[in-house]
Amino acid sequence: MQTITFEPKGVCARHMEIDVEDGIIQAVRVQGGCSGNLQGVSSLLVGMGVEEAIARMDGIHCGPRDTSCPDQLAQALKQGAQG
After folding, report:
1. pTM for the structure as a whole
2. Is 25 helix (H, G, I), strand (E, B) or coil?
3. Which of 34, 49, 39 lies closest to 80, judged by CA?
4. What are 38-79's pLDDT values in tens digits?
5. CB within 8 A of 57, min separation 6: which ones?
6. Which range of residues forms the domain containing residue 32?
7. What is the count of structural domains for the chain?
8. Surface-to-core class of residue 83, CB atoms within 10 Å of its CB (0-12 exposed, 13-18 middle, 19+ buried)
9. Which CATH number is 49's domain given?
10. b/e 39-69 (16+ beta carbons within 10 angstroms → b)
11. How many Cα atoms occupy the beta-carbon half-sphere of 6 within 13 Å?
């Protein structure tokens, strides 16, 4: 199992950890940010393939920001896919 550790930028969340096994997301942990929303997003991601998760979340904006917590999760997954 691979654990991706990521420090998001431009969002309220401060730290993200994503467990991936055989290209499938097993667990997502986020510190900071909007607790209810991130718990929901994290729950929906479990069991989803990494590529599908990236396709669904990459480029999502939060208000006037050019990024969001889902977008930052996608960036974390991209970083993890690179090794």
Report:
1. 0.94
2. strand
3. 49
4. 999 999 999 999 999 999 999 999 999 999 999 999 999 999
5. 70, 71, 73, 74
6. 2-82
7. 1
8. exposed
9. 3.30.390.50
10. eebbeebeeeebeebbeebeeeebeeeebbb
11. 29
